[in-house]
User: Fold these one by one.
Assistant:
Number 1:
Amino acid sequence: MAESFIPQGAGFGDCAAQHCGTQNGDNGRVGPSNHGADGDVAAFFARNGFDALATQDQCDEFARRAFPTASLKSVAPQGYCSYTIAVNESHLLQFRPSAFALNLGFSEEARRVFGSLVPAIRHMGSVSGTSANALDAPGGLHLHVYLQERIQGETLAAFQQRKDIPPDAMAECRRRLVEDIAQFFAVSLRHARYEDGSEPFAKGHVGSTLRWRGELLQQLRQDQARRYAVSALRDLRRIEASPWCLTHGDMVPANIMVDPRSGRLTGLIDWAEGEWLPFGVGLYGLEEVLGQHEHMRGFVYYPEHEALRDAFWATFSAASGLSVGSHAGLAAASSARRLGILLWRGIAFEDGRIDRVVEQGRDDAEIQKLELFLSTPDRLPRRQPHAGGLSSALSMLRRLCEAMSASWKRLRVPLPRFFGSSAEVVALAKTTSDSTQGRYSA
């Protein structure tokens, strides 16, 4: 557990650590020695207003003092919102600016619900970084420091690029992963809460601004996407009446960890954007595992993506004990899914700002996903006509006509002229009933 690595007392204790990777570089930074503040690390510090070289040195010094016997190593690739160092094979040290601080209360709640799929996290303190602006007062910029349990396996992004797995075996791995993700969504639904329920919950950045974001999405210039945005805003009241579930908030291949031998889900990392959201909004994440990015083509679905969707819903229904097609509380799932796609692919993310929709020429990759995801059928199980529906009424009419025909025959009186023959009456009722049942159950 992470607690065994927390420095004792007010100072920094001697924390034993397993060796992991390259030793600290001779230049004083976390290894490898030629890493410096290049690439992802330098870009992260610069985006957030820090002097890259000086602030990385300050973070590395914090790590060395906290874990003096560990072989610290800068991980690759780095995340967009943090600087991360591997302490050993089981723990990571992560530095995050205040804008991307973790909600530890939500992380703990998610871990109680999802168990080992969520890493244990402990706040270690903060580092005063050096501003890139020499005119800024010293100590004005801070980085929160978190000790985080390391989820075993590799990211789905890396797994998707493997060439050493035969196509049939890779397809089986994809099926297993989709079924595990279905189990994840089923668990979240079993622990759902309602706006008017007895268990209160705090809405996050997205959940508390759904209407504002829905109105922003009306500015989309893609005709199909804008039509769906209009529909989602019109349906928002029904979506918000759905069960609210613990939602990851950034379910993309870089944050999905899998077992490289089986493809099974081992965990989800980076819960910084996790929050309570209506069921279905988080289903945008399912799209991300039904295909992958290909050079020059953008995102492409796997050939078996429809079968994978069916496997998802079959597993979800079995695990949750609910059928999306028949449960009244989940009636808005399809609309909520489209809303989730619009929220995550229709609004541009610029260093934490969310004040504009995606635009052609600036966000082409996002627009390609947005249009593809929205135009692809979700294959959610649909509600079948219930006993009081039109199909049932027509069946009753058919039985009534058969009974009337039998009665006229017993009385040996011909049917009135406007009824036609008894055979015609029964045939008409049967044809109407059968055709309507077929249309409503399609």
Number 2:
Amino acid sequence: MDSDLDYQPETDVDSSDDKVWELTGSSDDENIPPNSTLNVTQPNVNYGYDVLDTMPEAPASFLPERVPGIQLDQYTNTYATEHGLQKPSVFQSWYELSPDEFYRFCGLIMYAGIVQVPNIERFWSTKSLYNGLWARAFMSHDRFKAIMCFIKVSNPLSEDPNDKLCKVRMLTTYIRMKCIKLYQRHQNVSIDERMVRNKGKQDNGPFGLAYGVVMKLTKSISKQGYRLFFDNFCTSVQLLKDLWFIGIGACGTVLRTRKGFPNAIKDVKNFEKKSKRGDMRWIRDGQLLTVQWRDNKTISLMSTIHDANDSVTAKRRTKTNGQFENLTVNQPTIVHDYNKYMGC
């Protein structure tokens, strides 16, 4: 009786075991050394589960550089071990933080940001007013405080002592790179002094702190036609000219005491005596335009992206003879654009 198990190989197939192909010379496979010989044999075909299979050894033992999985729990455990004795009241009940417990901790942090209570302790309160809060179901209050005490978002063994942000550098770098990847800037961008780390004394180079910060922040947008806006904390003749050199147009309010400010328009009091609201004056030095516009007071701006002749109209409310009235005045486009894009 014929059976599916009574299989015989076809006789016209060359199944000899001694047929060998030799490959010599260079290879495109980077895992094969050049000028080596690769012997390829035809193996026997085996049928069924009873034929013994001799499995070769693994090419390498699994020894990753770090423990697989989330790393922040490992950093926290390392930090707690090294600094626990400095906080004995917390460390005496400390035990290693697991990945699952770290996820629960992060969940509670996000929950606390959504549900507002007077203080963090109320999430574990047993009073009827807070009885509906479910933090107790996931972690005790003492354990939450212990993790908060030792939480670490950087590797304590590789922190750079010269980096003042070393404790959060990994996290800020990760967030920054994600933001860069997920968002493309529009043409008009601005820099505010709130972004500057420190106004204290430090080595800021020959052109000062603001100059160094702006040049560092704009490295990724050079030669792309961006237009940058900033206030008088940053604006200087040197900065605008150097930004122009790397393909970035710039505009900002400027102090009359800045080095390089045109001497011919430093006398604001005389200008205000002879001008009315909406009047302006300007000086161009190559690509650099300096404009003064009379509003309630005189405003000075510098730009490498504006034309002195371009203007719009602006509405102003002024008091004349004890009565308020609306005025329509001319406003240079440089002022209009600065108000529009500063802080965007």
Number 3:
Amino acid sequence: MAQDQEKKFVELDNFNPSAVDLTAPPTNARQYLRQVVAGRKHEAAVVAVHLEEDEKQPASPLKLCVADPSASATCAFLPDKQWRKSRLELFRKGRDRAESMKKCHEKALKLKWPEKATPDQWKALLFEKPHEGVEEAAESTKSLHAHHKGTPPLVSVLLSLKQPQINNLIEMMSEWYLEDGHSRALFEWLFALLLFVDQPIHADTCSALRQIAKEVRIQRSTLGEEDQDLIRELTFIIVIIAEYFTQKDLMDV
């Protein structure tokens, strides 16, 4: 019994693998192991699998990790934390007023807006020539919207927009800012839309806001001490996006 327990393997003597009959049933352990060894020597080194056309998966696009240039964009003349805190509180109060205004449907103008997939028409209405239904109201508030050649962001205009249109406009604002750079008219429109957009914001809208904030950081980093007004305006937008809309990784420190 002790000898059987010590012998735990089968010894293979020297044999010719080519002479082993792989089709014959083995009669003992040694023959079985010889067939295993001989069979492996006859196997192909590479196994190929044929797939039908409908079984093939499209190749995944190559994704490159590109450093975010906005991450290192700093401003030496950044307003202090107390100023930023006061702007955040100001925006919160503006949102509260906007929520109350949304209930006053009688103040909304009856305006026909372009289709979603026509950004050029929207851009022309907002920044080039006022909507024909807004001309009278725009004229009466002209002094308050001196930077606007097109339709100003009046409360009555904002109330005429449906939430999908507001989300769509914020996404277009991101594209226009990246293409054309900063303008007071564009940022006043963006600020007004952020007052009236519902929460939680749509994923595509959130992505657009993040892109705006990143581009703002880059632009702001190029400004000097003589550009304090513009630095504050850009910082206000970052406060809104990063702190109110909780994109904390974009906050100024």
